[in-house]
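# step 3/5: fold
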Amino acid sequence: MKSVPAWLNHSLFPFESKWITIEGNDQHYVDEGRGETILFVHGTPEWSFGFRDQVRELRKNFRCIAVDHLGFGLSDKPACADYSVPAHSRRLTEFITKLGLTDITVVANDFGGGIALGYALDNLPNIKNVILFNTWMWSLKNDPHYTKPSKAIQSWLGRLLYLQMNAPVNFIMPSAFGDKSKLTKEIHRHYKLPAPSAASRVALYAIAQELMNASDWWQSLWDRADVLANKPMMILWGMKDKFIPPSEFSKWKSRFPHAKTISFPNAGHFVQEEQPELSDLISKFIEVPVIVE
């Protein structure tokens, strides 16, 4: 029987934790409220905790589900699992199928964008709305902005920083906030404690390598993304994001001119942590989506 860890602050994360077995491992998720389904899909080094404010507010009128990818958050962290982004997307598909989710509004960021849209592109009739922020879905292998840090990540030093020093949480995450005061010690602690050892950080290191390793997969999704033009879409962007810059926001807008777009000039990469009005924007968009002609 799974139980939540003693370090979890229930005033910050006031939800019932649940687990479901996917491909032989237990994945953690929360399932709160009733109504239309909103599925939150996180990136790295996040977990369902990152969407706590949105779940707390939106569960009043919607069914809010936030899942932890395998190797993240309170999900199992097997040493030898497939932690590639196609595998995460495959497991998300099984998760959705097992829970019988229908007419889904997807909310996704960072690596979660491609992981969620990997499902969406193969299951369009089951997607009602798409809401994305600070993410990408195309090959990055020819872009120096990504190839340079990727080479460092895949080096012996990168492995040391990720596995031994938890670099994505301890160093990268704080620098990714537009307003660093939003990352309080208590909030930061809830990103540190799910991965307290090198053995528990394997997934974080593996997904970082997917920046380049999954290039062909990302591009295969982008090549058939036009089918999403028939879905109501909202794209949000923290303009102080150093990791996925505003030029990528422009790329989304060019590809999907029908999408509702909102930029936050003072927010960084983790919009859900920095913009309290996000819940209201999501609620209003679902209730009155952009009309696709």
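# step 4/5: annotate
The chain has a mean pLDDT of 96.
# step 5/5: archive (pending)
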